[in-house]
Amino acid sequence: MSERYTRIFEGESDLYTEGSPVMISAAVLLNDTETGRVIAQMKFRSLSEKKITYLKVRIKPFDMLKNALSTVEFEYTDLSADMYDQFGQKTPVVLPDTSARSYEAAVIGAAFSDGTVWKSSETEWCPDPEREKRIEALAFNNDTEKAAKKSNKIIAVVIPAIIACIVLVVVLPKPKGNNGGDDIITVIAGSDELDEHKNDTEKQAIEVKVGDYVVFGSYEQDNNTSNGKEDIEWLVLAKEDNKALLISKYALDCQKYNTVNKDVTWETCSLRKWLNETFFSAAFRFEEQSSIISSIVTADKNPSYYTSSGNNTTDKVFLLSITEANKYFSLNEARKCAPTNYAVAQGSYMFSSDGNLTEIDGNCCWWLRTPGYDLDRAANVGSDGIIYDYSFFVNYDNIAIRPAIWINLGD
User: Fold this and answer.
1) CB neighbourhood size of 32 (10 A)
2) Domains of the chain: which residue ranges?
3) What is the CATH number of domain 5-129?
4) What is the pLDDT of residues 1-16, one digit of tens each?
5) Which of 52, 272, 308, 372 is the most exposed place for a label (fewest CB within 10 A)?
């Protein structure tokens, strides 16, 4: 945060009242050290299937002794918030009384693009214990509705889609500097490449491309240590010259972002150390380790808040940032990730498509390296594929891990 503004109050997060079209995700009070103004900032998440065009809020400020000050009503106009969208966090609300040191917020009205309105019944706004389930259920209903509208198109592409799923596993050349041993990288290629290489797959390697899955390294995944480690599948996110950016197809483990709840950045968190030491040693043989590139990991800022992101680091293994998760996965659906049995055994929560905890065929939440609303929080991708930039405390122990690496593909 700029030194001009100091935070003097942080309200409870994820406030909700029954029937509301929005959730109050965050509320803070800032002091402008140059002008002396006291500024309220709030962040909302739309829970409505209808586009929100207008929002009215009521702010009840209190002074240091908890004495009530004059109530303020504020209007957010010209909005265009679709379901799941977050908004409001960049709009300052200047309070008339500079002695304000805390406040309570409530949404009292909303208008939608179809001309309908919602008005509050004046019920209390409280932390929502059903936050994850509520958003998961909305996502499920929305996806179901979209699927029904596209049913005719789906029928038309079923046959080619099935054909495209035929795969061919081909061994890529060993990276430069690999001295003997088994081939260490394989690419799972789509059938559109099958004809081109069907006569010379032993002589010519298939070029890895974005969207391919490659097999590289091994890690315990089925939670049965008696049968050894399982091969790790990676999704190719980017390719630059002779190197590729990979992220694990499945969430491989479950670890805290930091072992204790305190202010940290990616540079100082315990998860960075665990990935580059414990995981790195367990997942990759010596010749595989030499193929992983030490890369500059940028300290990307949280796009919604002013949280300090620390310094750039140099790492072999890292997590994606919010910026990268948006860049490489354009849709929420693409960010959804299932945990391995081992990750679940380590504590990863798994949710079914209807938003309930499940033991089979579910998706999980996975950490990003970007700090959250404060430095004691870290961003994550939810089981619905949505990026949560406010997010969980760093010592939360049910968030899974999707490691990312840059590898050398050889000449």
Assistant:
1) 15
2) 5-129, 152-408
3) 2.60.40.3230
4) 346 778 899 888 889 9
5) 308
